[in-house]
Amino acid sequence: MTDFEDLVGERFVIGLGGPTLRDADVRLFRETRAGGVILYRRNFASPEQVIALVEDLEAALGRRLLVATDHEGGRVIMLGRGVTIFPDGLAMGTAGDAAFAHRQGLLEARELRRLGVDLNLAPVLDVLTERYSPNIGIRSYGKDPTLVARYGVARIRGMARGGLSACAKHFPGKGHSPLDAHVGLPTIESTWEEMRATHLVPFLEAIGAGVECVMTSHPVYPNLDPSGVPATFSRRLVEECLRTELGFRGVIATDDLEMGAIGEVCPIGEAAVRAAAAGHDLLLVCHTETAQRAAVAALVEAYGSGALPAPGLEAAAERVRKLRERRAARREGGPPGAEVDGAPLAKAIATRAVTLVAPGPADFRRRLNGRVAVIFPRFSELAGRITIEEELQDERRYVTEAFAPAGIIPESMVVPIEPAPADIAAAATLAATCDVTLLFLWDAHLHASNRALLEGVARRAQALAVVLLRDPWDAEFLRPGILGITAYGFRKWQLDAVIARLAYP
After folding, report:
1. pLDDT single digits (tens) 443-498
2. What CATH number did the domain enclosing 81 receive?
3. Residues noted as catalytic
4. Domain that holds residue 267
5. Residues 7, 138 within the same domain
6. What is the secondary structure of 360-383 as a DSSP string?
7. What's the pTM value of the predicted model, to 2 decimals?
8. pLDDT tens across 89-106, in order?
9. N or C: which end of the chain has fewer CB within 10 A?
10. Total domain count for the chain?
11. Rounded to an integer, what distance in angstroms lies between the CA atom of residue 252 and that of residue 235?
12. Which runs of consecutive H residues, i.e. helices, occur in 162-240?
């Protein structure tokens, strides 16, 4: 291979298909010269297995890779054991103590370094607004840019203290995006004045704090770049704003180029070339071998033909190399395992985050002395796709044990994540026979069936409390008289905290 092919490969982070290393995986990395690997839920069976997966790949290649993962906390967790599963960003922001965020960063750094991870694609620095956020939501620290900046910087510094590189995302800010970029191309109409006052603030603070990597976003920002291209392809936003005006000297990474937002605009090869031309150093192509090979081949062709200038290639590859070489060892800190301080911290965050969003009936707690119905989502149905704690995968047992300390023996019903009409009818019938019903609602914005479940149960329940899990904005669907409560997420510590608040005065 020629030098520029090696340099192109250095700039790619690609994903593996599963938890076992295949000959095809080794060929893919060898032939593309990809410099990094990203670990997803599909790659994780156990801490020991994921360590072996990376070490075997590196041994087969004879070189060190940059190992990345999405370990935001809460909704986005890829490695389910050997780590503390902290609550979501919005729970952290609501808990009200930036020291918690710093401690989280330190503990997760120690845990991830034991697993061999170099780069955590976190924290989320997107700022929420009054506009509904279908994708960022509880991943954000909140609506106040100063608060988001304070918590984000505290966590970044904690990660750095623990020897882990952080990646602030999604520049220039998409907490107010009207559409999930995984499925389509959003347009954000904000002006430069609005962005500087709100959405750029956390990124400026993160850069000042020395964050090593910044990830950009896919939406179109027509008032920031009149060319109308996605931010991923915008030289105005990436090279001119982030690199030059804001003075960021670290690694600029794309979000996954296989997302639906980019697929709407152009083929993957063209996307890689346009992202590099905009000023990105690190290109993420996370899922499909065909797309990964096409992206690398297109960038090799662009530099080989002179369509992209060689000095830019060399500078970008050098920034990525420096990021990778910040750590001499593949793993640090001993055998994998969660920090002993992790669970108490996660519990404290979750407990302080519990928020009553609708007061409900005055006699709610008295009714808990009678027949109590609990309608609970089938989390085990999700376990093949996202990380779900083992305790929550045995739903009936979890419900029974969670309410037992309060002396409550609930009549529980586990419903599918997308309940069918028969499930909704059965849940409504159970609610009608009990003194009080507790409905743990997954997401009524995302799934119409969940809204139908809420409405069906609300029509027949004698008294109803709704625990808002994945989407606290579902509060808008609550009828008067319904108690609404949330801890801004669905992790075990958050469920425990909500149940404790409901069950005890």
Report:
1. 999 999 999 999 999 999 999 999 999 999 999 999 999 999 999 999 999 999 99
2. 3.20.20.300
3. 182, 255
4. 3-324
5. yes
6. --TTHHHHTTS-EEEEEE-GGGGT
7. 0.95
8. 999 999 999 999 999 999
9. C
10. 2
11. 12
12. 192-194, 201-208
